[in-house]
Amino acid sequence: MTALSNAAHDSATMLRRNLRHIMRYPGMTLMLVTLPVIFLLLFVYVFGGTLGAGLAGGAGGRAAYVNYMTPGIMLLTVAGAAIATSVSVATDMTEGIIARFRTMPISRASVLTGHVLGSVIQMLLATVVVTGIALATGFRPSAGAAPWLAAAGIVLLLAFGLSWLSVALGLVAKTPETASNTPMPLMVLPFLGSGFVPVASMPAGLRWFAEYQPFTPVIDTLRGLLVGGAIGHDAAIAVGWGAGIAAASYLWSRRLYNRDQVT
């Protein structure tokens, strides 16, 4: 077999390994779903009436607010899954299994690729479950098949980028406990963007950050695709952020992995 086919075969083997770990420890996946659902129910049923009244010139309400906030909840789910990936990578690095893999005739890239692919699958499954619960709480998207596919592509690209970033954070962490904390700022970004309130309602300094951080154009694009509204340049910016995070994080992860191999 060629080097490429060997790498693909080894990556598939590592993916199966990571999927078995995910199924063996369902508590982590359950946490990834539970936290966004708690925020969903809290914001819809406790704050939704008041916050929804501030949408559409006061013509909104709880029903309008669940449509507004669901894209932010979807990204909160994706960001939360990065914690599980970071912990998994740090655990492998500290328990010595990586050293054993390095003595085996397998592709070096397959170890990290297996983590990334497993993470993407876990993120997408958690997002599907949370979106289903959002539909049960009143989320009513007006999108057809094509916008849904476009929205899925945007989420997939961001999930891919954040998976590589979480791998890098897991490699740089000294312990799994540290790895569980380093991705936490990602979960704050939907709140400091357009996920739960319009950016225009924020103070000037915070509004500037909210407008230019990576999650805001992704959320706005998902919202425009699923419930209608102008997207403008947000889609191109969202794709740029997703691709940029993926490329930079991949290079960072590869450098960290090769550095650890040398040392």
Entry keywords:
263 residues
How many domains? The number is 1
The number of helices is 12
Work out the helicity level: over 70%
| Alpha-carbon distance between the two ends | 31 Å
Question: What is shown here, in short?
Answer:
It contains twelve helices and no strands. It is mainly alpha-helical. It has one domain (3-262).
Provide a descriptive summary of the structure in words:
The protein has helices spanning 3-24, 26-45, 48-53, 62-95, 97-102, 108-136, 145-172, 176-179, 184-188, 204-212, 215-227, 234-262. The longest helix is centred in the first third of the chain and has 34 residues, at 62-95. It has 263 residues and is mainly α.
Question: What is this structure's SSE topology?
Answer:
Layout lengths: L2 H22 L1 H20 L2 H6 L8 H34 L1 H6 L5 H29 L8 H28 L3 H4 L4 H5 L15 H9 L2 H13 L6 H29 L1
